[in-house]
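Let's practice the habit of predicting before peeking. Look at the sequence and jot down your guess about where helices and strands might fall. Then scroll down.
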Amino acid sequence: MLKKTLSVWLCFSLCTIAFAQDSWLIKGVVLNANTLQPIDGASISRGNLFSISSDTGEFTLKNVKQGSYDLVVSSMGFTSKTITIQVDSKLKDVIIYLEESATNLDEIEVLGKSKKRERMETPVVSYNVSETFLEENRENSLMQTLSKIPGVSTINIGSGQSKPVIRGLGFNRVAVVQNGIKHEAQQWGNDHGLEIDQYGIENIQIIKGPASLVYGSDAIAGVVDIQPNAIPDIHSFSGDINLLGETNNDLLGVSAGVQARTHNWFYRGRLTYRDYGDYKVPTDQISYENYIFNLHDNNLRNTAGKEADASFSLGYINDNIQSETTFSNVNAKNGFFANAHGLEVRTSDIDYDSSNRDIDLPYHKVNHFKITNNITIFSEDHTFYFDLGYQNNLRAEHSEAVPHGYMPKPANTKERVFNKNTYALNVRDAFKPNNAHDIVLGVNMEFQDNNIGGWGFLIPEYNRFTFGAFAFDTFKINSDLHLLAGIRYDFGRVDTKAYYDWFPSTINNEDGSTSYVYLQRAQDKSLDFGNFSGSVGLSYILNHTTFKINVGKSFRMPLANELASDGVNYHMYRYEKGNLDLDPEASYQIDLDIDHTTSAFSIGVSPFVNFFENFIYLNPTSGYYETLQIYEYTQSKVFRIGGEIRASTTVFENLKLDASAEYVYSRQTSGAKEGFTIPFSPPLSGLLSARYQFKDLLFLSKPQLIADYRITASQEEIVPPEEVTDGYQLFNMSFLAELNLFKNNSPVEMRVKLNNVFNTKYFDHTSFYRLIDVPEAGRNLSLSLTIPL
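Done guessing? Here is the structure:
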């Protein structure tokens, strides 16, 4: 290796020439002084001159004027060195030797921890999702991609939208965080998806269980933390183009991203576009409430959609500060199954079967614009973090203009408009008073301004302000035993605004006369909420086994829809009524995690026990409004227990097997539905996965075949209007490979996936369309390519 390196270097050195009389090239090689091996990634700099050594140790400095230069050469793990170079006609190529730096044992313990070791020492039960996992398991939405993780499921809204569920809890009980800022949309709605582009994400941390200590009241069930991408290398440029096609809904998609860095400045950019048609289900008719809906070519009519996303960020980094400002916009238009929203197909003049790519009524349009700024300031003893964010979520729901009750026929199709502006600020100070303690102090502030429009009413306009302060300490009892303890206080205020119908309703008076009045649906009301949260956790590492226990108390403020809704939700086929007397949810939970990992196999178990003092849910009543049943928000005590188990082993060199299972048991122990479970409770489920890597073949490198076999039990624990859902078995397959198409370039990554291989007809208990007996998508073949730039 050394002879080859020196030969290549000497060959290049003989070709060294000057560009002009006063412009020169400095060429050289950086070697390890002990082994004489080349050093890859060493930086050679002086003022505006800069270069990075290649994998053969070579570097070049261009356009150098005649004179004397002091070059600083540095590389991680080596002692930096300053050399003096005289640039003139006698200039020769340079050989630079770096000495390996000596680091004492204490510094290795404090500063040399791997991310894996840090996760083992943290008592929080979490799961880290890598970029490789996201690429290999990518589905139509981010949360569908993550649903392969034990304990994580989704509420699917068609083929292109979904929302997160962690251990059976979703909506505003799961916080989605991106670049340190909570993603704020209309996540309270069953039919509202997650407006985040899943391309270009490198790392996600999923926290199972209460995480409101750091993230605030909406993290009572867990967190999906989309973490910032790594800073690009100095003087680098990279990018990729992702191409995707699917057969089930005729999807075509493309996503292109680039990133680059000079010495201190860097930028990133990405554009994504997806267009898809109605997705197909393995049945030709659907029966709901004595109505039979015949499907044309198995298409779930009017579930087509399109999405266009863009993001750009600009950052700066030096020894004392790191800052990145990100602009992103997600714009989507999605149709709703035409037989789901008020059963329009029975009376509509729209030809829903004329094209599987039309987006007819009913549909929604959503645009989510976000600006975030993340600043990290490094001082001698403290590290300060500042996260600032602004978001605008504009969602418009369109449906056919038809009269309802006393409401006359509207003049347009804009049924509801939700316009939400959110301003957020997070501040943290992390410091180490000594080698045993890692202390973090922080505050979170958020203000929401929510406006409404359209001729239909469900929730009022409202403002929401929250403030939280927290402190926690990670105490190293010894190198294998760590204690984490923290406390937090939150204050919140919700101001709802009055709303009156835009049309008069008929009221029968006691004297027999009739009055026409504009009914009041919401009133001006200010409500304050405050509560303490806290947690104590312990982690212990014993050889190859890690033990974790975490005990926590968290709370969640009621939302405006839970407090003040008063209208028909046609997407859910019910009339929803809020309750201004609701108390904040308080949750107590114990989490355990035991993980044993060796080079040959790993096994882990993560049980939990959870108790809600006052769980908020929609309770069906005996009353009806315009033939729709009235549901009222109420509270009850809820007991939950469950967990996940996982195992992995390498049978022989090229075959790896993985298995996991998850289960949640929920029971209401008070209230009108005492003895029932809670809505959207996922059933017992298991996943078996086998991965085999073949030898390289022709232009295929690292070919892998993956088979997933999911077994889901029936869900008989239901709460009306849910129905019992039968169990099912599902088989998926994937083929992954790298294509060496371009010489001297990075390979093209290819992924071929076949979901629902046997075109099984099955029902997902947590799916949005499960309430009207719509099965999940049928067989789907997808092909994606990632082309590096």
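How did you do? Residues 1-21, 103-112 have pLDDT under 50 and may be disordered.
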